[in-house]
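Structure, all four chains, one model.
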Amino acid sequence: MLPDNLVGLLHVGLNHYLVLSGLLFSIGVFGVLVKKNAIVILMSIELMLNAVNLDFVAFSKYGHNIDGQAMVFFVMTIAAAEASVGLAIAVAVFKRFKEVNISKFENLKG
Amino acid sequence: MALTSEDILFHAFAAVATISAILVVFLSNPIYSALFLALTMSVLSIFYFMLNAPFVAVAQLTVYAGAVMVLFIMVVMLFDLKREHEDVLKISPVMIAKIIGAALLCGFLVGVSWLGMSANQNNPSTVVAPQTMAKDLDKTKPVVAMADKPENPDEDLTAAEQNNLVDVKGAPETAKKDVPTKETRLSPDEFGSTASLSKKLFSKYVFAFEAVSLLLLVAIVGAVALAKSRGGTHHVAR
Amino acid sequence: MGNGLLEFAINALKIIIVFVTIVSVVPLLVWVERRGSAFMQNRLGPNRVGPLGLLQLLADAIKFIFKEEFIPDHADKVLYFMAPGLTLLPAALTFAAVPFSTPVTIGGHTINMQIADINVGIIYIFAVASLAVYGVLTAGWSSGNKYSLLGALRACSQMISYEIAMGLSLIGVLIMYQTFSLNEMITAQLGSFNFHWRGLQYAVKYLPAWGIFYQPLSFILFVTCGFAETNRMPFDLPEGEAELVGGYHTEYGGFKFNMFFMGEYGHMITSSALITTLFFGGYALPGISPEQVAAFWLDHGAGLAQTLHLSVTDTSSLMTTLTHLLVFCLKTGFWLFFYVWVRWTLPRFRYDQLMDLGWKTLLPWSIANLAISATVIFFAHLK
Amino acid sequence: MSSDTLVTILLLSPFIGFLINGFLVKQNNKSPVRAGIIGTLASGISFICAATLFATLSGMGEDKHIHTLFFNWLEVGKFKADMAFMVDPISAVMIMIITGVGSLIHLYSIGYMGHDPKPAKFFAYLNLFLFNMLVLVLGDNLLLMFVGWEGVGLCSYLLIGFWFQDPEKASAGMKAFVTNRIGDAGFLLGLFMIFVTFGTVEFSSLSKMTFSPEVAMIGPITLATLFLFIGATGKSAQIPLYIWLPDAMAGPTPVSALIHAATMVTAGIYMIVRLNFLFAAAPTTMHVISIIGASTAFFAASIGLLQNDIKKILAYSTVSQLGYMFLGVGVGAFTAGFFHLMTHAFFKALMFLGAGSVIHGMHEEQDIRKMGGLAKKMPITYGTFLFGWLAIIGTPLFSGFFSKDEILWRAYSSPLGSHVLWVVGAITAAMTAFYMTRLMALTFWGESRVAPNVKVHESSLVMTIPLMVLAVLSLVGGWVGIPHILSGGHIPNILEEWLHHVVINIEAEGSAAEEWVTMGVSVFLAACSAYSAYFLYVKRPKLVSELPKKFKAAYTLVYNKYFVDEIFQWTLIRPIIQLSRGLWAYLDVRVIDRTTYLLSDVVKGTGDNLKLMINGNVQQYALYILFGVVVSLVFVFSR
């Protein structure tokens, strides 16, 4: 069997969810920072939103407050709206330039 | 003291989620990215089930995995971007800065999440896995089972919550207002139920609900208009 | 831990049995389809291999398994192999929430005749069913064939469009039953058709309290959408041979094609089971509650108990479960047959007609149904 | 109508008139009468409100007081100033004078400014002045009073320089403005002192406090009141800040009548009367006020003796009369000072308007040496001017007699006064009689010295009606304050009773006999000097031309106004200008400018370099945001 302190460490609690959410969020941020494909950047943003949702639900459960779950719905709705508009923009851009690599769109600069 | 099956499930799925999230970013084919993102979202929905939020879980599946990601995949397939190769890890000063930034954020979030909860870690009653806890709660009085000393609800509502939810120091008053006391805590049945959630949505958050529905309408119109347009205001540079 | 292990074993067993059942029902369905179509078209159908051509199923299966594996040149190999699995998986997963009989209690152990009693059962099914698009999409795209891709996109749009109408059509049912749990829905459909009006209760004694009588429009909409969701005639546009060669699975052959085939039939089975559960009282007998059935077996099952070396109550429980399972199979079987029936009766839609039907007819009707149901239920306490 | 509404209309009517005339009416001479009617109507409505308020107030019992709170204006720590207005006996009389005389002058201006290119602008300024003056008078705290105080200063500047195309007139406006600034600084310091000492600037709260006269030479009250008095010397043209008023005559004559004779210049007196309880507690200040007042009266009167410009004479006369008022309040006779303020408003406005009529009739000629014998050509102007002359020289039964006599008697008898003050006052009265008679003689009497090409004509009715009204007021205006000794107690001293709840009166110590004697002496002196002036300028005009040769030094000194302007020029203005030049050339250009250039260069350079960060790559921007987020998170959590 595993040593007790390790088991204690592995017992799932709020912090586990928070750590997981933090990881996913950071990965999403990294994706936003480095990816060149606009659509993948949008995906990374979705990933960040999902990470936040996980936080909300975890807090809702461990804080015994259902408001967190309600909040998730709003996040989802906004994410859906964001995705649809973002993709529509991507489609429009692709139609015009045959390209969604954002490094090709750096005309607006100081 | 031994690991419960929920613990094992959590760690397994957490690994799946993390790895697939990493693959989303590191794979160069956007289709694979999208599919792995869908996988991540599905796994998250499993976590929601484990967190007594079944309705959120299925909503996550329907909305994210079933609709949003399908949309992404359709767009990617239409563009046929599979041959695009990008050098994710080309070493340049900016790239190093980006890596450092993301790593800092990651370290910070994980560190705070973990350390902020260490007080909580010593309190075994809150460490029980969700389902087990739900069972415990069924057997005994919910409040007593939740924590053996629930006199001070703030105590097991953890430093991290106070840190993460309310990270402005001036605001603990408002934070405390929302912290459930003995009376307002819902029984586990009620807690997970869709009815209690929908009551919240249609009473306390009804305005936000309506506002969000309006937002959706606007987004639909906007998306249709954008996608139908010829695209852009300036001419194609050939 | 021992107890948990037993539970785990029982659950695993249930999953395996259900999966195997579905998989083995598929060839049977194929046989029914072929014989049925032949019957409808006034011809013979397969009748050479085995009695009534029943062994034809086995022959088909063997043929599929031993066919040559081939991979198209432009295919994305990983996804090409994954796609059939992705199609089959949701079909199998959706069935997990369907209760197919009463729980059985043997030796103090209660076993639910349902893989997972999820209290949001019905929306769980929807959620998982919506994942079926992935199989279609990946199959179409990874084949590297433009016809496949077009078929996949068609299928995808069609499924998403009809999912909306389907979900909305069911909300009337949901607010009537006031639950997401399929088990509770079945309980709600026990007894006879009754309603309240101005404080008085009216009952129609010889009409069971099935959902179809309360929500006829919802039923029609749901069945229509069910056809579209399973990509069956008259909505099998994604694989319209005349336009798209063979749709998203053009490039598939052998066992992989068989998996698509099984996925489609799996969806059919699930949706038939859902129609049964939502509108036709599920596994329950019309007018007879499970308690009455159990009481019947308690009275008449003594001899059987001796034969089986079980206690009387255990026998009663077991026999009740089996009775209801039979009822469930009969009801679902009827709806499966209905699918076949329709397939060989109605012609195929055109794609724009299909979309028009989904968005301009079914969706408004389901919204109207929702509004009317909500109003009536609010005022008449119809339950 | 409630009194709140009345106060609102009273205040806003001229302001709306200002807005209409200032912004809505085109600035040309297409319809001068329309602009005039708008302005006159605005002030007329104001006058009706003022009269109604006055009537309301007189109908009230012991505590005559109307308080109107508009809104809370400022509240900083303990400091509190409301946008609130207060009508009490003092301000009631003031608003009657301001709106009444103001309305008459507006009416007069329709005729006087009829040929001006921008009459609407003139009436707009005039209305704005009226509004500010009302704010000054009605404000229930010192700060609001200061707002009005500054506002009237601004209007005075605008109106003196109304014909700003003439550089001399423009600079006269600037002189008035700058001189007033010095006084205003004093006022502001006084305001601060009062707040620091008493913790409030509201008149009602201040008046509820009890003050015992300060024993020390310079105490906080003395200091505060002295500062306020500096403000008063600026606004009311007292030594040493009187120099702007004679130059202010560059403005249109109605302006001189309204602002520089009747209303604005009396603001200092009004302020002292308003704060009489405070000044009464500062004997040192009172002495300073009375001495300054007496010497200004004497000094200005002596300058007036030899002036030749009709408006300048009236200006010095105004300074001198203001000196009288300060003498009055300085010896503790607040009622008497206020009384003289009122009567002076009538007769001096009358005389200015008359002078304006003369100037108008003479086609912008102001030199009295080129007039003479106008009595026949301008009978109405002459007749009304006569009333003003009789009033100012102190002819018994005319308004000026009562008020001047009251001040002189108080200066003689008050515990704060002295016989010396009375002597100076009496001599001043004699001098006043002299130069006023001289003015009359040279303008209206004797031989005509008008240039032959000038066609003299009587002014139109719109100008003469105000003259007539003011003439009547100059006669009867004094009857509200007939001293007991004259009436034998049969006629009540209305003004004293009206004011006695709000104004402290330091009782005179003197017998009736003394009062009769002093009165007789001053009347006799005035009569003598008036006759001598008549004799000199009408009977023996040749004698006059020889006088300068006999008293050359004195004549030169007085004729050049004691060289005060020149002294100021050499001792103050020049050094300040030189110092400023030096500061500009060395400190500003070489030090401050270079520093700021350096700063801007640094900023620009930094910007040029930072600009490179904005390279159009959105992800790089996201990176900046990320670093910001991390830093702020660390900051928040490490606290």
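The longest strand of chain C covers residues 200-208.
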